């Protein structure tokens, strides 16, 4: 069941209380049969004001990928490998381990990350429809949105052992640890053997019969390799002194890196034994015993990327405010009363438009799971609505919308590859943004049981063109190296399609109010929808909406139609 936030519930209660209070003011209702859920071609009569309070609860934890296949919402936040592409600060340890293990193309990884992500939205709105004339209606919509991001992060889950970590927390960083002492012994063994051979090389003038003197080039190379290798082990694994405290991460036991380094220690030991037969077998550097924990991973990501903690995020703010108008072009009935009594078909047609202002809040660049309260830029939309009345009980509405989303600028973090959410703070720039224009088609067939009750179905298709982002930048990374950024990567795979279906129930007291059998002129609509298919990472959303409409007269003649 969708999560009903307390703010939205209070909003709806306030709307109902408001309706009850204004019910005592002089007014008359527009006497008509129940309309049903969704938009239709009718307009509010001249001088009438219709106040609507609507709350929609929706949630989703899946999207439809670029090719239409279903994908977990947390999939982009669930990399198989927490390597340098996700955590740039791992680059120095990767470079060091490649040299120590002599594996120039190997990559370090802290292991896989599993992120479960569910987005919940509670959208509230007041809508005001004013009948300016018998055929022109002005509309204003004031939305208020409460978004909730529920995130659960699990580092190195057991079901993903195939992508096991090859580096983990360095045990030598613990004060007075056995690991640091063991690493010290390995380094000391290498350095003593190297120094022994070096001393013997220097004594070749007085002791030319020494075996090392006849193999000088090979011995000198062995000494250089041992000293370089020992210094690398000290810097990486740590030997318990400040000058060689060690890296935060070292290879895990049994990993390819650790095995290669252990093999190299044994190989050097064997090489030295050629010249020092009494040499014993050396120890090997102390490996990481466990992978990083979830808490350690979260802390690392927060520090490395300069992001807020991954967890539950709640946001409440005004959405994108709308102002528009609707004009009825054709009405074959001429009045609602005749439409009610007709047994033959009929047609109503209206056109309209609106301006949607960018009053919403966008997702914050430093929050990987934040859900904004709207697009945050200005749109211009034109639309048309047609009602086809088949009989007194069956009629349907068709709506077509086309929206132009105007250009603006926003601060965003620019990744190297599309849909990579792990972007460091230095990549945040002011970019040009032009969200794709959209079309939407809605069909709503209705069955009118009587003047008070209606059942409806609804089908919606939406398509949005690809977003465009502009701007090229050259910035410095954490190491002071220049990095080229191109904002166009943000628009890749953003062309979107979405298809949803739903059903609803409507109850109206308008007819009863006109007959003096109800105190309040109300319409109550309930609609449940769910997304069937889509592409371009459209959310697979389940939504339930409750709407209450209240009518009152502001000016002009009474609203009761002539019978």
Tell me the strand order in the biggest sheet.
1-4-5-9-10-11-12-15-16-20-21-23
Radius of gyration: 35 Å
**CATH architecture identity of the largest domain:** Beta Barrel
Q: What is the CATH class of the largest domain? A: Mainly Beta
How would you sum up the major sheet? 12 strands, antiparallel, barrel
Give the overall form. Answer: rod-shaped
Average the pLDDT over all residues and give the rounded result. Answer: 88
Our estimate of the beta-strand percent is 35-45%
As for the CATH topology of the largest domain, it is: Porin
Q: How many beta-strand elements?
A: 23
Low-confidence stretches are: 1-8, 14-31
First-to-last CA distance: 45 Å
Share of helix, binned: 10-25%
Structural class: alpha+beta
Spell out the CATH superfamily of the largest domain: monomeric porin ompg
Q: What topology emerges from the helices and strands here?
A:
Elements: H1 6-22, E1 48-60, E2 62-64, E3 70-72, H2 91-101, E4 113-131, E5 136-155, E6 167-169, H3 178-202, H4 216-237, E7 249-251, H5 256-273, H6 294-305, E8 313-318, E9 322-331, H7 336-341, E10 346-356, E11 379-389, E12 394-405, E13 408-413, E14 428-434, E15 438-448, E16 453-464, E17 468-470, E18 472-476, E19 482-486, E20 496-508, H8 510-514, E21 522-535, E22 538-539, E23 542-553
Antiparallel strand pairs: 1-4, 1-23, 2-3, 2-22, 4-5, 5-8, 5-9, 6-7, 9-10, 10-11, 11-12, 12-15, 13-14, 14-17, 15-16, 16-20, 18-19, 20-21, 21-23
Helix pairs in contact: 2-4, 2-5, 3-4
Fill in the keyword field for this structure.
twelve-stranded antiparallel beta barrel, 23 strands, rod-shaped, Porin, single chain, 21% helix, 8 helices, three-stranded antiparallel beta sheet, alpha+beta, 2 domains, disordered N terminus, 563 residues
